[in-house]
Specification:
Elements (H helix, E strand, L loop, with lengths): L2 H9 L21 H8 L5 H26 L2 E5 L2 E6 L5 E8 L4 E6 L2 E8 L4 E4 L6 H13 L6
Length: 152
């Protein structure tokens, strides 16, 4: 097996251990079986992801519609994608959309892309680099856009 094939095998979210003993030479032989089993099951299945993403979008949309009425920005879209449209202080558009193949919610705002994955212990989509959940990310970028503190 080539070096690249071994890396691909080790990073595959669908990696499942075989029944081979540890001493057999394989790209996964040096990993404990429990770790590999946990890794193989860490990605949500598509239906579960869609259900969690839809619930997160509905909650986010409701909160942003309320804030938009008070602060003068518009929220458009349905379960597939949300857009936040600003005219003041300068024209801008933020896009929030699910990326089902990788089981993430992607936010495009302020010339930056934020990728949030499901965190089971927090029961929320979380940005891995900052630890912020979806509401916190959106509160921060809307606050930056408007130049005033916004909490969704």
């Amino acid at each position: 097996m080539s070096h690249i094939s071994r890396i691909a095998a080790l990073t595959s979210p669908y990696l499942i251990t075989s029944s081979l003993p540890y001493f057999v030479s394989s790209p996964t032989a040096h990993y404990p079986r429990f770790t590999l089993f946990m890794y193989a099951n860490c990605m949500l299945d598509e239906k579960d992801f869609q259900r969690k993403a839809d619930a997160a979008f509905e909650d986010l949309k409701r909160r942003m519609l309320t804030a938009g009425d008070e602060l003068g920005f518009d929220v458009e879209g349905e379960s597939g994608k949300l857009e936040v449209l600003f005219e003041e202080p300068e024209e801008a558009k933020f896009v929030i959309s699910p990326n089902t193949p990788v089981r993430e919610i992607w936010v495009s705002a302020l010339s930056t892309s934020f990728k949030l994955g499901w965190n089971e212990s927090r029961n929320a989509f979380v940005h891995e680099k900052t630890g912020e959940d979806l509401l916190a990310v959106m509160s921060r970028v809307i606050s930056q856009q408007l130049g005033a503190q916004v909490t969704l």
